[in-house]
Design a protein that fits this description.
The protein has 232 residues and is α/β, with parallel strands linked by helices. It has helices at 35-40, 63-84, 100-110, 123-129, 134-142, 147-154, 183-196, 209-219, and strands spanning 15-18, 25-28, 50-53, 92-96, 113-117, 171-175, 201-205, 230-231. Strand 2, helix 1 (35-40) and strand 3 (50-53) form a beta-alpha-beta unit. The longest helix has 22 residues, at 63-84. It starts with 14 loop residues before the first strand and ends with a strand. The model is unreliable at 223-232 (pLDDT under 50).
Length: 232
Amino acid sequence: MCPRSVGDDTSTVFSRIDGDPRATVICCLPWRMPYRLALASRCVPKSFLACYEMPRAIVSSEPELCIRAVHAVIDDAVRVVARTRLEPSQVLVVGLSIGNAVATALANRIGARLCSVASADRGDLTLWESPASAQVKALAITKGYRLADFTRVMHGLHTVENLTNLAPGSRFVFGLKDEVIPEPRREGLIAAVRRDLPAAEISFVDAGHFATMAETVRRGLGEPAEVHLARA
């Protein structure tokens, strides 16, 4: 397999779009989705403090680079929040798809509210099982990496390992027809939230991966959920 088929999966460079300095929302976009596309797809909240385009290496054939990419965005976002002098519980961190790798760890670190949309329980298993990352997985295998290599380096950064310090009012939204997040990964996160964060809201949208994100943003990220067609 030619590395060009997955593009540059080694870059830890990210982009931050600064919004309203009075806003309290930090948004973490899906993998390979630039801000302009997210805006056109209606996956960006109307008002935000900062919106992040994820580094390409957040899904990388090099296990260590996955972790560097996540930490690069988290560290920058922590500095952004510090400059606002907001109480962490006033901040709403929005994670969209793989953006949740950053969003959940960030919200848990500072004690912010989280709105997690179309996420999974573990990054290693999602990379190995999702059709969206199949080419990256194939490239990793050609380099001699196995699932165990990703499991080892990602320890401590999985979504299910970053739930206990989330602020009250956190939400998790799942697409019932999500074609990107494998069902076991969705169910694994739902079980972990029910166990570790029982007061959090779990909602479902009867739609696919990207439609779930657009519908959740359209209905409002910080309000009590009205997006669900079924309620856990």
